[in-house]
Amino acid sequence: MPLGSRALDILSFLASHPGELKTNNEIVKQVWPNTFVDEANLRVHLSALRKALGDTQRSPRFISNVPGRGYAFIAPLERDNQAASPRVAPLANSNSGRFPARIFGREESIAGIAGQLTKERLVTICGPGGIGKSTVAKAVLSRCAADLNAVWIDLSEVGNGVLIPTVVASELGILIRTDNILKEINAHLDGRNVVVALDSCEHVVEHAAEFAEALLDQTTSPRILTTSREPLRARGERVYRLQPLGLPPSAATAAAALISPAVQLFVDRADACLGGYELSDVDAPYVAEICSRLDGIALAIELAAGRLESLGIATLSRSLSDCFRVLSRGRRTALPRHQTLRATIDWSYLRLPPPEQQALKELSVLPGGFTGETARAVISSAEADDLLAALVSKSLLVADTHYGEPVYRLLDTTRLYASEKLADAGEFSVVMSSFSEHLTALLEAAEEEIYSVSMDEWSQDFAQQVPGLRAALDWGFGKSGDILRGVRLTVAALPLFFRLSLLDECLVAVTKALGHLDVRPDLDERSRMKLYPALGWPQMRSTDGSKHGIAAWTTALHIAEKLGDIDYQLRAIWALWVDAINRGEPRPALELVDRYLAAAPSAPDWADVIIGRRMHGATLHWLGRHAEAADELRMMLADYETVPDGRHSVRFQFDQRVTARIILARCLWVLGEEEAALREIAETSQSSAGHPPPPFAQQRPGGGGMSHSFAFRPERARSRIHPAFARTHESAVTRCLERLCGLLRGRTSAQSGKAERVPDADTLEHGRARRGRLHALPDDLPDDGGQSSCRLRLPR
After folding, report:
1. For residue 469, which of 446, 453, 422, 426 has the smallest C-alpha distance?
2. What is the pLDDT of residues 144-168, one digit of tens each?
3. Which residue from 707, 710, 709, 665 is spatially nearest to 683, judged by alpha carbons?
4. SS3 at position 373
């Protein structure tokens, strides 16, 4: 009578354990490993099997039933002693070599491990819980089935590692006749092409290593494949670290997202859960976010997909901030440690020694990547390096060693789990306080480097500190934080905020810090002095924020004078000078230059005197004293040659050398030395090519107007003022050019009691000639409908 494959699987399983009572759950788990099956289904297959064997319930000859408990194979068996290989236990998936229906993104890993297994005798697959080690191991054995027999041994239920030889002997069907079980196993396996697969070794890792070494030392042919969350560290072991499934781009379409193995797994499990699911472009960004939040961990993704029965995709994506509550319904037939995400991490955490548990909790305050130095700052133990190595070995901490010094990272799920443990212990604020102190000290020590050194030449990647900086500031200014630590960290972080152009975040932190200090006079005036300039620069950046910027810089100047801080006095004077120049008030600006030059000799930076001369030369230019300005700027540039490039570009928002040469070229142009002006501009453009503009040094809307373009950037002039605009606004262009030339000549007259610059006849003629060149520009420039701006922007 023909039998179905399930009935044959049941017969094979029972016959491989003659005389042993196997419960209904054990049989179901063996024959239907990935499916929920009602016991009625099992009874149907057993009924067909008994009918085929001619068995009866009253007088069974082959399979006996113990009501309410299970079944046992009771017929006598004869072994074929001529068999070329030992009887091996069936794989946990299926006796007939069936494995999980689909495996996503693991082909390279399976091929690599299979290749190692043909050359080496001990291979360990390592990775965090739920990443798919057992699935990959079974697929490897399936691929090697033509050359190697296999016995699969699940050690997850073995509480005492001393029992490993006994469990292996039982699975091999060895009748033990001596006290030396290992000797019996060696004799049974030696000379055979067999792989002993030891699954889930992490909780008995020492005994597993001892067993592996003893078996391999005393035999010549057997091989061992193990899965563990940490290496066995046995002699001859080859470790394969299994990586998370590949993730999709964050804003992917359905087609782009489905290239990712993580998304493929999610969609497959969602389809199985819902009885039909196809990824749409609407759902794709949510699914990408889910897979990324779960770090590409296969088990977590499967658990997430299983929640679609009660949650929509968008709701599921939003709910993952509490992933341990959401991801709590695994397959009924799964191992207990795989039933929920929390149980998976519990399995690893509860087996850590207390010092490693404490270190993992403390590291949970560090988001993103972090260095060993940062880790040592938050780990309270003096053995921080050893603890880091242990956590990396046990797959609880990821270490990237591709770029010299290791960069560590906790998987998001692990970090969330450990942070809960830290909060439960009431230690979060203590550890955050240590982290905040470390970050403050690090940024204070690196202030000069962050300000003046090219980012490509930084001694470390300071941008890597930004996620931790955000977390520390959130804590410091939060309800349970230390606001004064938050203030000091904000001050220390100002150079990094400026250098990375994190304007909005800088303003938020500075505003909170000043809100605390302004109502507490003299609490920390030095920090307050440094914070106001940070508030002033972004304000002065916008056209309508100048008055706020002036107020911030004026306050900073008063505090600096009270504290006798020359450096910040100069910064504030310089900023106020910039504002005066921008408002077209060169005479008040000259008074500020005099104040700057009077204080600069006492500054800690000797180059501040040179910068004062640059300010003086620029101010003379705007007063119409172009020859004096040119002489001053030439001397300033000669002295500035000894100053490293970019040293003041962040502190004073502009490259001082480039800015000085721009003003010098303008002076030469106005003085009629156009060839010299063009040479100056060409050399300046060439020397500054490839240097990005400093942070916050952006022009106002509509800035970069015609005087700048004509004097230095003819090509920019073509894009700013083209024929269509000139023809549409001819009179406006004429007035603008005439006004420009008047400014450059510095001629003034009194009108309505207010000084105003008025061009003379030569200047007007020069302006009209310039205007005539507009109409000769190419006609292939884009027409913006006359919306181009003709505003004048004065470089400092």
Report:
1. 446
2. 888 888 899 989 888 888 989 988 9
3. 665
4. helix
Confidence of residue 430 (pLDDT cuts 50, 70, 90): very high
User: Which tokens belong to 775?
Assistant: 């109409």
* CA distance readout (Å), 458 to 503, 609, 697: 21, 27, 21
pLDDT (0 to 100) of residue 569: 94
**Separation CA 498–CA 451 (nearest Å):** 9
Does this model's pTM top 0.70? My answer is no
Kindly tell me if the per-residue pLDDT of 289 is higher than 60: yes
223: helix, strand or coil = strand
What is the tens place of the pLDDT at every residue in 377-403? Answer: 999 999 999 999 999 999 899 888 876
Cβ–Cβ under 8 Å, residues 387 and 355? yes
**Of the candidates 505, 492, 465, 498, which has an alpha carbon nearest to the alpha carbon of residue 377?**
465
Is 644:606 a contact under the CB 8 Å cutoff? Answer: no
Give me 24's structure tokens.
């209904």
Torsion (CA) 577, 578, 581, 587 in degrees, nearest 10: 0
pLDDT tens column, 56-110:
666 667 887 777 778 888 777 765 544 444 444 443 333 334 455 578 999 999 9
Residue in 764, 766, 780 with CA at minimum distance from that of residue 723:
780
CA atoms within 13 A on the CB side of 473: 24
- The backbone region for 319, taken as left when phi is positive above 0, alpha when psi lies in -120 to 50, beta otherwise, is alpha
User: CA–CA separation, 656 vs 653, rounded Å?
Assistant: 9
Q: Mean pLDDT, to the nearest integer, of 398-420?
A: 86
The SS3 call for residue 239 is strand
Quickly state the pLDDT bin for 543 (edges 50, 70, 90).
very low
How many angstroms separate the CA atoms of 232 and 375, rounded? Answer: 26
b/e code 382-396 from CB counts within 10 Å (16+ = b): eebeebbebbbbbbb
DSSP label at residue 161: G
Q: Give the N- to C-terminal CA distance of the chain in Å, as an integer.
A: 98
CA atoms of 55 and 564, how far apart (whole Å) = 103
Degrees to nearest 5, angle at CA 282 with 277 and 288: 80
Kindly calculate the radius of gyration of the chain based on its CA atoms and give it in whole angstroms: 38
Give residue 422's identity as a one-letter amino acid code. Answer: L
The CA distance from 653 to 669, in Å, is: 25
Determine how β-strand 748-751 pairs with β-strand 754-757. Answer: antiparallel
Residue 245: predicted pLDDT: 93
- Are the CB atoms for 236 and 266 separated by under 8 Å? no
CA distance 534 to 67: 80
The two tokens of residue 692 are: 């990005």
Helix (H) or strand (E) holding 452: helix 447-452
Closest CA to 141 of 92, 101, 176, 207: 92
| CA angle centred on 133, ends 130 and 134, rounded to 5° | 100
Residues 291/262, Cβ–Cβ less than 8 Å? yes
